[in-house]
Amino acid sequence: MSWQIKKFEELTNIELYAILKERTLIFVVEQNCPYLEVDGKDPACYHLYKEDNGQIAAYLRIVPAGIAYQEASLGRVIVSQAYRGQGIARELLQRGIDFVRHELQETAIKIQAQSHLQQFYGSFGFRAVTESYLEDNIPHVDMILSDEAEAIL
C-alpha cells in the first residue's frame, strides 16, 4: 500500500473514479445520507489517499485557505470498511495536518467534524468552536487546530 498526494489535475481518471466511488459509498450509502457529495471544490484541492491494489483504503481532501473557509481545511475523511481498526485514520489525519503546515505554510486548519468523532479530532489538538448542529441530518461540530483556537465547549 502506498500513500499519494495529488492536485486534482494530477489524478488519473481511474484514481478519481476510485476516490469518488469510495466517498459516495461511505458518505451517501453507508451513512444513508443523500446529498451532493461532489460539491465542486475538488478541482481546487489536494487529494491524499492510501491505495491498495486499486482500492482506496483511506482518503481525505485538503482544501486550501479561502475555498471553504478562511482557514485551510481537511474534509471528506474516510477509511474504507475493510481497513478500519488498523490505525490508518490517525496516520491519514497526521499526514494531512503535516501537509497543510509544511507545504501550504498554513497555521490554522478548520474542519466540520461529525460530532461522534470530536474526541478523535481533539486528540490531534482540534478544539470545538461551535455547538453541535445538524448537517445533512448528522450532528456536526466545527473545530479548529491552531495555537490561537479557543474552545467554547
From TrEMBL:
Q: Which UniProt keywords apply?
A: Acyltransferase, Transferase
Give a single Pfam family match: Acetyltransf_10
Note the PROSITE patterns from the entry: GNAT (PS51186)
| Coiled-coil annotated spans | none
Q: Which GO terms describe its molecular function?
A: acyltransferase activity
Residues in N-acetyltransferase domain copies: 6-148
Q: What domain of life does the native source organism fall in?
A: Bacteria
E.C. number: 2.3.1.-
Would you tell me the protein name for this molecule? GNAT family N-acetyltransferase
Which source organism?
Paenibacillus oenotherae
